[in-house]
Amino acid sequence: MKQTIQFTAIIERENDGYVSLCPELDIASQGHTIEEARNNLIEALELFFETADPSEIQERLHTEVFVTRLEVNIG
Fold it and tell me: Structure pTM?
């Protein structure tokens, strides 16, 4: 039985494309568009779960990830 788990995706522009990162597992991918980078990250995560040993999943998995904005004084 397949289950669905939600993960965080951070997507940022890099040169002429986009890089996507799942910080919970430190897995990244890329694409020419935001949607392609998102879909490629989903595929990379699915492949990871298909092939990774359960001990590797436990070792890499960060259960608490916080994404926030910061205000920084410069100058």
Answer: 0.88
